[in-house]
Design goal:
With 565 residues, this protein is mainly β. The chain is built from two helices and 37 strands. The strands form four sheets. It has a 31-stranded parallel β-sheet that branches. It has a two-stranded antiparallel sheet with strand order 5-6. The chain has a two-stranded antiparallel sheet with strand order 27-28. Strand 27 and strand 28 form a beta hairpin. The protein is elongated and about 110 Å long. The termini are far apart.
Length: 565
């Protein structure tokens, strides 16, 4: 037995020593479990006290050089080394050339920087790669960036190993969830059931993504619903290609500038009846967005597909639809128009070039006409709703019509009004002239405007049919088989009393072909039955196919048809 005085002193010291001993024991056990280092490696001191979820403390070690990290043999070592640097005093990790295998995605802390060292080789630049090494359900991203952080010069490879998508609506290679961050020179790819880049969280704002290349994903770039206009999130000077469904989705406010969107939409709805995806898609977004100075071409579906949206600025873009599919599985690719504004209001569409040259596709059996059919017009927007109306009667070529721009309104209760848009200084070209050798050549129409547009039938209780036209000025249709078909009650250079052939702005090029009275509308103003009161929008922009998706087998990929660069 110990002397009472010794027992008393031990009783006083033990409570003070216990926390220190507990911390030392946790550090030793943690280093052993994660295989980070052994007791003989001094680098372990830099991570003593780190928690299993990766939140490292602000401790550093002279033996860990965060300015030039090299790939390790262990995915866990790579993960905890990078995360340790991001949580260090400098909050910065610089990756050297090579592939960094990871066992889970990296959630960057606020005010941190993750940078790769680019290497020039044979005229191309190679970036360090972050790759998910094995299937993991712990995370649904390769990198998630938060507030006031920077990410640059890296390749992010999902390697089809992200499994956390089953519990996460926002699964993506790069998850942007914060404000004021900068992303530059990033390649994001290999996620067939999620997005390449997902900007989400209602508070996310002011993020700038520049020179980002997204490919080989189900969705490309998504602006989630709830994102606000000021300050907006901006994607610029990027490339989005080989996307299974929609390349860009505007669920909330976002800006797309000076980017190339191409060769996408060929596998949209793999696990449901197949239908074509598109280049830029919007459904139910009333907050708006900016689409400016982009090139969109080679889509299975439409280049721009807007449904019940408002407050967009779409300027100085080129939308080009020309597909000659050579694979039988691409026979579902169809778009009645290169650009459609369906039930859309308060949108500026100006200085764009819109081309539709998709009259015929070539398959293994030879030239085949893309013929419209009722399944492509389920809402009956190309004819009157009278029981005796002939399908597609409002189209100059009937079911054989290819359209550049379509401004449409559904003839059913609840449809949003197609009003107060501005369409100015665009060039629309829709032509089937180079398809003259086909058995039934189509007819190209530069722009088509449906019945029911330009009228707000429930603007006021006492004024059930307020005129709120879409205004068309200085639009060119050179190269189109037919310039335009103008149903509805809209406004075509109405401030100019006389528009002859060759008249300059504000006249539209084909104004002289239409009635001089009634603001140059054709005689197909309204549907026989009024559309009725529009449904109140919930303000939630939607994806074409909701996430999460079931995990599919990796599809047999056929490259899309070659298109003009």
């Amino acid at each position: 037995p110990l002397h009472p005085r010794i027992r008393y002193r031990l009783a006083m010291v033990y409570p003070l020593a216990q926390p220190v001993w507990r911390r030392m024991r946790q550090a030793w056990l943690f280093c052993l479990v994660v295989d980070l280092c052994s007791v003989s490696q001094p680098g372990c001191r830099a991570y003593a006290g780190s928690s299993p979820d990766g939140r490292a403390r602000n401790e550093s070690d002279a033996n860990v050089t965060c300015d030039s990290l090299v790939p390790q043999s262990s995915a866990r070592k790579n993960y905890f080394t990078i995360l340790g640097c991001l949580n260090s005093g400098d909050r910065r990790a610089v990756l050297a050339e090579g592939t960094f295998q990871l066992h889970r995605g990296i959630a960057m802390p606020d005010n941190s920087s993750l940078v790769g060292v680019a290497v020039d080789a044979n005229g191309t630049r190679r970036y360090p790669r972050l790759r998910i090494a094995v299937p993991t359900a712990m995370t649904s991203f390769v990198v998630r960036i938060g507030n006031a952080s920077s990410l640059s010069s890296l390749t992010l490879d999902g390697a089809e190993n992200l499994r956390g998508f089953e519990q996460d609506c926002c699964a993506s290679i790069l998850s942007v969830m914060g404000s004021g961050s900068v992303v530059e020179d990033i390649e994001a790819f290999n996620f067939s059931v999620g997005a390449g880049v997902y900007i989400h969280g209602a508070a996310s704002s002011g993020n700038v993504l520049t020179r980002v290349h997204i490919h080989s994903c189900y969705y490309g770039l998504i602006f989630e619903h709830g994102l606000k206009q000021v300050p907006g999130n901006v994607f610029s000077d990027g490339v989005i290609e080989h996307i299974a469904c929609d390349a860009v989705t505007f669920g909330g406010y976002g800006e797309l500038h000076a980017s190339v969107v191409r060769d996408s939409g060929y596998e949209c709805g793999r696990n449901v009846p197949r239908h074509p995806g598109g280049g830029i898609y919007c459904s139910g977004n009333a907050v708006g967005g900016v689409v400016r100075d982009n090139r969109v071409h080679g889509m299975c579906g439409q280049g721009l597909d807007m449904d019940s949206c408002a407050n967009f600025n779409i300027s100085a873009n080129m939308f080009h639809t020309r597909v000659e599919a050579v694979y039988p599985e691409h026979g579902h690719c169809y778009a009645f128009a290169t650009v459609s504004l369906l039930d859309t209001r308060d949108t500026l569409f100006q200085d764009n070039i819109v081309v539709n040259e998709r009259g015929v596709v070539l398959n293994e059996q030879g030239p085949t006409l893309i013929r419209a059919s009722p399944e492509f017009d389920p809402n009956q927007m190309f004819t009157d709703v009278d029981w005796s109306a002939v399908p597609f009667a409002d189209l100059p070529g009937g079911s054989r019509t290819a359209i550049g721009l379509a401004v449409l309104r559904r003839p059913r209760h609840g449809a949003q009004p197609a009003i107060d848009n501005v369409v100015a200084r665009n060039h629309f070209r829709a032509s089937c002239r180079d398809r003259a050798d086909a058995e039934e050549p189509c007819v190209g129409v530069g722009y088509f405007v449906s019945r029911g547009t330009g009228s707000d039938e429930n603007a006021d209780y006492h004024l059930q049919n307020r005129w709120s036209p879409t205004k068309f000025t200085a639009n060119l249709v050179e190269g189109s088989d037919i310039g335009s078909k103008r149903c509805g009650r809209n406004w075509y250079a109405a401030e100019e009393p006389i528009c002859r052939r060759g008249s300059e702005s504000p006249c539209n090029e084909d104004d002289y072909e239409h009635p001089e009275g009634n603001y140059r509308n054709d005689d197909c103003w309204e549907y026989t039955a009024l559309v009725g009161e529009p449904m109140k929008l919930d303000g939630i922009g939607r994806l074409r196919i909701p996430l999460p998706l079931p995990l599919p087998a990796i599809p047999k990929w056929h490259p899309p048809p070659a298109t003009a660069s």
